[in-house]
Design goal:
By secondary structure, this protein is an alpha/beta fold. 44% of the residues lie in helices and 21% in strands. The protein has 8 helices and 9 strands. A 5-stranded parallel beta sheet has the order 2-7-1-8-9, with helices on both faces. The chain has a 4-stranded mixed beta sheet with strand order 4-3-6-5. Helix 2 packs across helix 8 and helix 6 packs antiparallel against helix 7. The protein is globular, with a radius of gyration of 18 Å. The protein starts with 10 loop residues before the first helix and ends with a helix.
Length: 209
């Protein structure tokens, strides 16, 4: 199990950290809006942006070839709850009973100190919580579908959900769309190439500030 070092930084380490700190990018969207497609395109097509996913924690077991410290940090529910009690998370969510996902504050500090521009691919509530914590240090982007009906069409065409699950996703999406004004920028994914170009321009401007 990954161990987290709580040793304070020395003054020399702090100097290096101040000079090389990566920036923070929060990307949120309702399910089916194309968020992950856009983020993955940015990371694969534009290595000059030096983007790296925030490595989250989860209390679920690894799947397939997933490795601890790569896709996630895998914790037991008890370990996760202990970190919650110690206020170690930027944001977390209990999706089902004892099934947690969350972002550790210390892990973000580590990745920024390495000079990585850290990308948070999170739900809208998590995105708002991270933005509230970091303020102007972070750029928050909301990926918005052109309409609920278009979102319905995309979810149906994906063919991965039952009709009932699609209706649940659409109901949740309608609620999540109300969070859009709380983000710094909104990118409407009507045409994927246009949305990708818009996201690239917005992120490049932020990183070059």
């Amino acid at each position: 199990m990954e161990k987290f070092n709580n040793t304070p930084l020395s003054s020399s380490q702090e100097d290096v950290q101040e000079k090389e700190l990566g920036k923070l990018l929060i990307v949120s969207a309702p399910s089916g809006s194309g968020k992950s497609t856009i983020v993955n395109w940015l990371m694969e097509t534009h290595p000059e942006l030096n983007l790296a996913f925030s490595i989250s924690c989860t209390s679920r077991a690894p799947r397939g070839t997933e490795q601890n410290g790569v896709e996630y940090f895998f914790l037991t529910p008890e370990e996760f709850k202990e970190k919650i009690a110690n206020d170690e998370f930027l944001e977390y969510e209990e999706v089902y009973e004892d099934r947690f996902y969350g972002t550790l504050k210390e892990q973000v500090v580590r990745q920024r100190a390495m000079g990585q521009n850290v990308v948070f691919d999170v739900d809208v509530k998590g995105g708002c919580n991270i933005k509230q914590h970091y303020g102007d240090e972070a750029l928050s982007i909301f990926i918005q579908p052109p309409s609920i009906e278009e979102l319905r069409r995309r979810l149906v065409n994906r063919g991965t959900d039952t009709p009932e699950a699609i209706e649940d996703r659409l109901s949740k999406a309608s609620y999540e769309l109300t969070f859009a004004p709380r983000f710094d920028c909104v990118v409407v994914n009507d045409d994927l190439e246009t949305a990708e170009a818009d996201a690239y321009r917005i992120i490049s401007e932020f990183l070059n500030q």
